[in-house]
Amino acid sequence: MTPCLNQQGRQPQRRAPPTAQVGVPQDRKPFSTSGVITLCPISLCSDSRQIRLADGGGRCSGRVEILDQGSWGTICDDRWDLEDARVVCRQLGCGEALGATGSAPFGAGSGPIWLDEVSCRGEESQVWRCPAWGWQQHNCVHQEDAGVICSGFVRLAGGDGPCSGRVEVYSGEAWTPVSDGNFTLPTAQVICAELGCGKAVSVLGHELFQESSARVWAEEFRCEGEEPELWVCPRVSCPGGTCHRSGAAQVVCSAYSEVRLMTNGSSQCEGQVEMNISGRWRALCASHWSLANANVVCRQLGCGVAISRGPYLVEGGGQILTARFHCSGAESFLWSCPVTALGGPDCSHGNTASVICSGNQTQVLPQCNDSLSQPAGSAASEKSAPYCSDSRQLRLVDGGGPCAGRVEILDQGSWGTICDDGWDLDDAHVVCGQLGCGEALNATGSAHFGAGSGPIWLDDLNCTGKESHVWRCPSRGWGRHDCRHKQDAGVICSEFLALRLVSEDQQCAGWLEVFYNGTWGSVCRSPMEDITVSVICRQLGCGDSGTLNSSFALREGFRPQWVDGIRCRKTDTSLWQCPSDPWNYTSCSPKDEAYISCADSRQIRLADGGGRCSGRVEILDQGSWGTICDDHWDLDDARVVCRQLGCGEALSAMGSAHFGAGSGPIWLDEVSCRGEESQVWRCPAWGWQQHNCNHQEDAGVICSGFVRLVGGDGPCSGRVEVRSGEAWTPVSDGNFTLPTAQVICAELGCGKAVSVLGQVPFRESDGWVWAEEFRCEGEEPKLWSCPRVPCPGGTCHHSGAAQVVCSVYTDVRLMTNGTSQCEGQVEMNISGRWRALCASHWSLANANVVCRQLGCGVAISTPNGAEGSDQLWKARFHCSGTESFLWTCPVTALGVPDCSHGNTASVICSGNRSQVLPQCNDSVSEQAGSAASEESAPYCSDSRQLRLVDGGGPCAGRVEILDQGSWGTICDDGWDLDDARVVCRQLGCGEVLNATGSAHFGAGSGPIWLDDLNCTGKESHVWRCPSRGWGRHDCRHKEDAGVICSEFLALRMVSEDQECAGWLEVFYNGTWGSVCRSPMEDITVSMICRQLGCGDSGSLNTSVGLREGSRPRWVDGIQCQKTDTSLWQCPSDPWKYSSCSPKEEAYISCAGRRPKSCPTAAPCTDREKLRLRGGDSKCSGRVEVWHSGSWGTVCDDSWSLAEAEVVCQQLGCGQALEAVRAATFGPGNGSIWLDEVRCGGRESSLWDCAAEPWGQSDCKHEEDAGVRCSGVRKTLPPTPAGSRPVSSPLPGIFSLPGVLCLILGSLLFLVLVILVTQVFRWRAERRALFSYEDALAEAMYEELDHLVTQKESLLGSPGFLSDGEDNNDSRPAPEAPDQKTYALGEGYDDAEEVPVPGALPTSEGSEEEMPPEKEDGMKSEIGSSLNVFREEADPGEGEESPWLLQGEKGYLGYDDVELSALGTSTVTFP
Predict the structure, then answer these.
(1) Using one digit for the tens of pLDDT, what is the confidence trace for 1012-1058?
(2) Could you read off the pLDDT of 933-979 as tens digits, one per residue?
(3) Which of 8, 1096, 1291, 1349 is surrounded by the fewest CB atoms within 10 Å?
(4) Distance between alpha carbon 912 and the CA centroid of its chain, in Å?
(5) pTM of the complete model
(6) In terms of Cα–Cα distance, which of 953, 989, 894, 889 is closest to 1443?
(7) What is the 3-state secondary structure of 207-219?
(8) What span, in angstroms and rounded, lies between the C-alpha atoms of 757 and 912?
């Protein structure tokens, strides 16, 4: 073989493949003749070999042929593979090798067989330079001719299909973008023609290059537009060697680019509509041709606007194009309108679309009179106003296609909606007909497709169904309505189409179904070529190719077989544009239904995240699971992953191997998604398996999940919502089943479904409802994989949203000797494992609920426990006994100690639900001192129930007893700690801390069952204590008794200046103490924040300093689970006074963190926002004010005795003695809030004085102002912040004239009073002297004495100042409520006896009367001296504060419960 020589007679130097920095191979100058590449000038080479690909339908695919010695010959396919094909494709400039074919798939060649057993490495410059047997040495025939399929030199990427997108050319080993610098339309035309994509209709620039793009094509193409392919276009190097880098060139090609109007063989502005399809002009069918389409044609041709769709039919030539365009009328080109061809019927000969345009672009036609509707019943058409301009446009949005969605009209530049009042199928018919979308299937209301925006143009429509435009129907008038966008109307037309693959376990493989005419049906597989399968896979987001599987068995069930004969073209961007046979209910037999497997075998999953929707991102490719590097990994990338998995909303994008380091390949790096891609591997990135990372940089995501429960007590109860695109959508309760609820609970990790509720009204803001019904069987791993069916008629049953309650406490049983029956050890299924319950705090009320739940009648007794399993479940249930299921009872697990082995709860039930036991004789109390227990009456029924209410939890509150169907109370006569002890023990609430009276927890209602109780403290039931008798009393509900037990719990955060952030404290055993932070994971912090009303998340702050002071550190080791609805249900270490060291106390910041509006609790007074610090008494020191969540100082500029007087009076510290300046009491810290304060001296608050704006000063803390007050406190009524009167400063009030005026005025007033008094006394003496005799005067004095005696007896009576009730008993008067004292339970050193202030009963307070002076005095006393802890919420909202938050109701009687203490934030209770 003679090599080609250069001019110097030397063999040309062999060049390496182009590197990443080289734009195009420099050793090959593009010159081609008839598809043959000449590798060097003929005149200079003895090697005249040339290469081509034949019979492949294009330059870059076909049978490999080589020209040598004047003859074209072939290559034998022995050992022919992709490496060999790669050399051929590169040699031809045809891009990437896609396939190496053998056995003459492009037909058998002729002539010599030049090569055999070719074995290229893939790097050779010419195929004949690869190792082989030798030139023309072979043992083959032409039936073994080799072929290749190349990608081509150019492609369009990132668009809707192969005919639109970013221009890229193949440079050796990679696809390289082409710069938009000097990129021309002729170049785009060449690209579209080469790709078989019609003509270029759009050339876009300035699409930003991917951040990972390492290079740009180093040449500019200078095509003239007639070249057969881009490879042969002239090229020039970019100026300076660097191409203009404003962005990548983008091209859109279309087969629908050229349109014309033809009349009598000439093109003008009226006539038959024709379109150039693949070089052939074809008329369009008049079926579904609309005036909106006609408007676009006229605009595209520069012929003004459409006057009508044409008054005549024209004989069309040949076959008429059946594609249907769905223009809104606002488009500039017909090719930009949505197109459907699938299922279109053949068009009758001569039924061609025609248009009459106004003739020129500038002509202005009279506006159509749309304010007047067409006459009812008229056959309205465009011809009713043939020469008027109709600028309004119509469209359907958010319905998944042009033929379904919310109805919107464009007018005056704004898109608006239609109200659903009176909206029906006749109205919808007009819309569907106007849009060319067939018949109306459904007229939807209530913003079924989401709420729109902008104007509401029409309301109360009343179409006949024959109008040409929806705005020509009778209505209330244009723009007149009484609606909101939640009433937006929508339609579903018969031409609405949807596509899916149906499979039990595959996402991108299954039976192909299309939604047409309101019903899902199958698609037939004949002839369905590869290009059709590729369009389907691409449309479904399942890759660019696939296969038709014909080996599947016959599919079960019946359904329509909607369409057959689908023949997609390369220019079709969706299946809807592909021509096919007409729609037919039975287009083929069931055995011909199409089953497609898309070739994109890549799968994605989230690993090691504790669920399907969170974890490390892993992709399966080529049989291996690999990861993604976290470089530039953000929420947009995570959004694509979550959508791809059907996992709802992206909550977080994690890096640095947050879920642990993966293994295997790292498939992607520098991922830069826009957030809209269908698959993460379609996002811009460096390239597949190109990275510079290790597995410590693996990316992860946290998704919300496809389904959630909202509006309940936590993530495991509430309204069912699923993620639909960008919004959460409620699921209707129509046909919502318990198995579906079970799947949801299991997917959410919430145990089992215990309740399914329906008919819960949808929220007012709900724009739409999920349009499918889930048909789960209960065993599916997730809701996403459950079968679904469209709601009947396209609209789901709208009675309300489905609600589900999940619980881990669902399954309970009684076990004896390994069998479950109606007596035995109580066991509960916790997370799939049966565990015995601890007998500690197990009550007969709990036992009653278990028996009722199991259908075993009522509980007879709770005997001592038997030997249990190794680990006992120590959660405590606090049932009242009336519940139907154990899971509905309050539960506490926080701080509960471990249960001793064998101390298991046991129950003996009566055995069946219908058995009636004798009533327990509770009218006779137990013998004093007897050790009463449930066994004292083992076989009697005790229907009475006990509970504590209005105390913020099950272990504190007003005592109430259920009897004869009514809840009643206990009177506080004789109520003490022994009585309360029985109640606490009966409820399983530990020991008693306090026995409260005087309706401490509010007045109850209903009967008062017991009075004058005298328990010993050992009784099993409170109604078995000695008393006056059942239902006998002489009390009112303002004397209702209550208790506080040791198991009562409350929660708060303590901070000086923050709400929803601070030191976490729990109230236990009568004392506030801190909580330890180990191990406290995110789920525990979220639980705490949610319970405190501070958002759904938070963080544990470990950087705060050591907290001052000492206090109990009650609990450590809290480990909440997702199923817990409050902190009290979370398992932890047992309660302990010192559970951890002070440095381990928990400080939490919740998502709802904000500065305090008050230094203590809100609302607060101005007095509470002012303080003195650094002085030698409470009434001297540096002045500090509270503002914007922190304390700050006051600058001494203009500080005088007048300002000091206001401060002293506001603090109740008497008169000002001195106005101190220059930080005499030491410099403060923080902000300097006030400067240039100017008071008159008589203002009620420093806030009323003039000053510079808050925080604006030119001072330092060395200028902090202070005061010295006399210290004589005056009781002043508080001035609530924000409600004080505004007074103006009076700067001259202490001037000399002012003082003299005050003195003279006072003297004159005193003289006047003396004179008036003397006059009245003189007149009285004269009347007494002349009007009465001595005897008469004596009688008068006797009468006065009698009246005085009567009044004294009245004042001494028990009913004085009562509500006027009859009080005929002769009991001694009870101790006044404000003097009554209660002793705290024994053993608490940190508490002392304190008076419990009486509380006015909330239900009866309005009836009591009080003298005004008495009332004023009481108000003053309460306002000035009673420390109250007020809730942060606005009292105007009508929500009653818990007792612990209210002063007169909430005082516990402990010194350490200083509920108005500095920094106390929100408090909650179990």
Answers:
(1) 999 998 888 899 999 999 999 999 999 999 999 988 888 888 887 77
(2) 333 334 344 568 888 998 888 889 999 998 888 899 999 999 999 99
(3) 8
(4) 47
(5) 0.45
(6) 953
(7) ECCCCCCCCCCCE
(8) 28
